């Protein structure tokens, strides 16, 4: 007989470490598992100087969140520990975030935090505490596969699904992770929080990047890398110099507003050329992407990535967290993978994630993903663009 966490032990003989952020989701996970009789230990990570983010709504990992997690632990009667991971977080997440922006990319620090801190360092801590599994409040599901491994699947609530941010979970990590909210909706979670009498039942969801308390990531980069932000030219895709900028970190692919140009036509950021310090702009139709080249791949599919057929495999991919998966063809490549989009996507930016699913279905399985290294326009758009934005 397996318990609710798919382990062949009684709940009372099963130790579970719950990653408690201080929000309603992870608090409900801890309370649910405690009610089921598991040996629950709560851990909160101090990732950033919480004095800088104290009392700021929408920021995770702040001082108030640590306080809230502690209160929840007291309410449900479990031990709770706060671990200082600030230095590791700074080196692994914040520094890489800054370097990526300076390289003309648009990074997602939450992906790196999950990969390198929460699902690596915290898993090691859970093992040290004798835990059988680590549970989190993410909206994603993991289920046993026919071959005995565990698979990662989209959440039941499509509006809350967090698979885009968790594609980098490795197979080894997946075996020790559990996501009790994967089959729930957010309203159901809040109702459970009220039922448990948790003070965080109505707490707002986190939205900001935790280490950007004022919402201005450029301030963080300029402080971390003084002198690295250099001005340069704003260049039309046809080669015309249209103006100047104060640093490519102030722009993102697909941006239209705030360019400071008066040229009589709507222009969009097509590319950030870090090597030459240029912001390349052009008409909207040139934002279309037909092919995506991926690096830093994480693959948790059944067959090895390199064994895919030469013609590729039909999959579904997601290139932004706010977009639905779209049909594509996946092929293995020398340094990662290549994705051919069956319908062009606009505003696909290097540094973002491309997450790969086995189908377009609502509860599709996550096969992995990678960081977008470069993009290629559809053939027709490429001819119009010439070589300026290449």
UniProtKB/TrEMBL annotation:
Disulfide bonds join 113-210. GO terms for molecular function: tRNA-uridine 2-sulfurtransferase activity. The active site is at residues 113, 210. ATP binds at residues 19-26, 45, 137. Transmembrane segments: none annotated. Keywords: ATP-binding, Cytoplasm, Disulfide bond, Nucleotide-binding, RNA-binding, Transferase, tRNA processing, tRNA-binding. It catalyses: S-sulfanyl-L-cysteinyl-[protein] + uridine(34) in tRNA + AH2 + ATP = 2-thiouridine(34) in tRNA + L-cysteinyl-[protein] + A + AMP + diphosphate + H(+). It is an enzyme of class 2 (transferase). It is found in: Cytoplasm. Its main location: cytoplasm. InterPro entries: MnmA-like, MnmA-like_C, MnmA-like_central, MnmA-like_central_sf, Rossmann-like_a/b/a_fold. Residues 160-162 are annotated as: Interaction with tRNA. Belongs to the MnmA/TRMU family. PANTHER family: MITOCHONDRIAL TRNA-SPECIFIC 2-THIOURIDYLASE 1 (PTHR11933:SF5), TRNA 5-METHYLAMINOMETHYL-2-THIOURIDYLATE -METHYLTRANSFERASE (PTHR11933). This is tRNA-specific 2-thiouridylase MnmA. It comes from Chelatococcus albus. The lineage of its organism: Bacteria, Pseudomonadati, Pseudomonadota, Alphaproteobacteria, Hyphomicrobiales. The gene is mnmA.
